[in-house]
């Protein structure tokens, strides 16, 4: 059929040819026996490794080494037109140098009784990634099913459990329904971490690539074990099929958390840690641990401004207690004071003995009013519950200086100085009381 060049049919045909030529996929038109009638540059390039002597005459012959049934499949397709096969993968050749086979995806369409259309795409890279992912999946599954003391969960941007692996049930006893959407603090004993600390850790993971902490963890039944928890950010989700990266939502997995039961090696490391960081008499943090904790708290405060309060506590007339009851009794009073501090403070607070009969408490995320209440509660509790030593009841009292971090202070030394000034004011005013540091002079609580 001939058509004048400016006839609409001719223009349409011209446009079709242009489309075939420009199409980013391989298009081959063939007759029912496979004889190639037309092929575009992409298909020529894709089929070239299969051509004999650089000639592409019959598609079925060219593809016979990788799709031997194709001729038969097309011949037995009875419908007058329609899809014969959809996106079947053809592994063209395994070339060791290129790191894997060239992979084509082939779809065949029957246009009418005499014409078939083959659509070819190069999916080598996609196939390679899929194989890599399957390998990684198999690896991870092997790790998670064979190592019984690791649990793996993914967290969303807010630190809520987003997905979980059955290993979490083995290590923590939690079922999926009970833990999904919950903050990861569910694995910690009550009061062992605050919301601000959890977000700090996520921020640390973002900045350093990971964050690790060790301590008591809690199982679903409330029992505790010694565990480590490592959190690291997941790489930004890359969706190959999307035209641009898919933006993350708050519910997408953003972090991976690995909890490990390390009860076995806890004793060894705990003994070493205690020797280096604990006060032998009271079991509280020693000076070294106290100042390291203070540094950490201040670094965190730089990233997210929030209150930090400090209590400096001193036993009143302690020399007289020693003189009256003896030095060992004095020791028992100090141990009793430490125990009372533990009973009043939270797990996140840093309780330390920083001198002979001088103690300090860092209260993260606590503002002045609450710090005053805590200090007063501690003072009253010491008076209410005297120490016991060898059947003797030893009544004693404490004085407490309170100060909070503010922007006029550059370091922790300044905060300690203020709390000390408040403590001396409490002593001056008669002891057994709480004094708050206030500019210019500390005032009674
Ligand atoms: N038992 C015992 N006493 C200690 C320890 N460390 C320091 N002390 C004693 O604590 C006493 C502190 O006395 P001072 O600094 O004079 O103060 P204080 O008698 O408590 O009087 P104020 O603080 O002014 O109320 C000293 O007698 C120290 O020997 C310790 O580890 N155990």
UniProtKB/TrEMBL annotation:
Keywords: Nucleotidyltransferase, Transferase. It comes from Duganella phyllosphaerae. Signal peptide: none annotated. Residues 306-439 form the GGDEF domain. PANTHER family: BIOFILM ARCHITECTURE MAINTENANCE PROTEIN MBAA, DIGUANYLATE CYCLASE DGCP. Residues 152-206 form the PAS domain. The keyword Amino-acid biosynthesis does not apply. This is Putative diguanylate cyclase YdaM. Pfam families: GGDEF (PF00990), PAS_9 (PF13426). Its EC number is 2.7.7.65. It is an enzyme of class 2 (transferase). InterPro entries: Biofilm_reg_signaling, GGDEF_dom, Nucleotide_cyclase, PAS, PAS-like_dom_sf, Rev_trsase/Diguanyl_cyclase. GO terms for molecular function: diguanylate cyclase activity. The keyword Transferase applies.
């Amino acid at each position: 059929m001939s058509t004048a060049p400016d006839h609409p049919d001719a223009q349409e045909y011209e446009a079709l040819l242009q489309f075939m030529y420009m199409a980013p996929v391989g298009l081959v038109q063939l007759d029912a026996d496979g004889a190639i009638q037309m092929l575009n540059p992409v298909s020529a390039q894709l089929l070239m490794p299969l051509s004999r002597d650089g000639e592409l005459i019959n598609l079925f012959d060219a593809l016979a080494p990788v799709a031997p049934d194709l001729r038969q499949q097309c011949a037995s397709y009875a419908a007058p037109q329609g899809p014969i096969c959809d996106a079947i993968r053809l592994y063209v050749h395994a070339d060791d140098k290129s790191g894997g086979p060239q992979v084509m995806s082939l779809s065949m369409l029957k246009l009418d009784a005499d014409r078939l259309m083959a659509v070819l795409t190069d999916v080598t890279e996609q196939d390679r990634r899929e194989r890599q992912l399957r390998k990684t999946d198999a690896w991870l599954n092997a790790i998670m099913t064979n190592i019984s003391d690791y649990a793996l969960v993914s967290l969303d941007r807010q630190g809520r459990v987003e997905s979980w692996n059955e290993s979490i049930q083995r290590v923590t006893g939690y079922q999926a329904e009970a833990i999904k959407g919950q903050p990861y603090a569910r694995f910690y004993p009550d009061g062992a971490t605050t919301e601000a600390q959890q977000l700090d850790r996520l921020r640390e993971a973002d900045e350093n690539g990971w964050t690790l902490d060790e301590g008591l963890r809690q199982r679903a039944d409330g029992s505790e074990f010694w565990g480590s928890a490592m959190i690291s950010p997941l790489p930004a989700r890359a969706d190959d099929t999307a035209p641009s990266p898919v933006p993350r939502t708050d519910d997408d997995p953003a972090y991976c958390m690995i909890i490990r039961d390390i009860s076995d090696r806890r004793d060894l490391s705990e003994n070493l840690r205690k020797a280096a960081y604990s006060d032998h008499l009271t079991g509280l943090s020693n000076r070294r641990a106290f100042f390291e904790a203070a540094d950490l708290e201040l670094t965190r405060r730089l990233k997210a401004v929030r209150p930090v309060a400090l209590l400096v506590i001193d036993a009143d007339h302690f020399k007289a207690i020693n003189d009256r009851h003896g030095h060992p009794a004095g020791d028992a009073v100090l141990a009793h004071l430490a125990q009372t501090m533990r009973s009043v403070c939270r797990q996140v607070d840093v309780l330390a003995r920083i001198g002979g009969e001088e103690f300090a408490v860092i209260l993260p995320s606590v503002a002045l009013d609450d710090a005053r209440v805590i200090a007063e509660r501690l003072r009253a509790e010491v008076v209410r519950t005297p120490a016991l030593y060898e059947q003797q009841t030893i009544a004693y009292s404490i004085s407490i200086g309170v100060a909070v971090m503010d922007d006029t202070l550059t370091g922790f030394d300044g905060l300690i100085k203020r709390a000390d000034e408040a403590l001396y004011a409490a002593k001056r005013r008669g002891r057994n009381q709480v004094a708050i540091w206030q500019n210019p002079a500390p005032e009674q609580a």
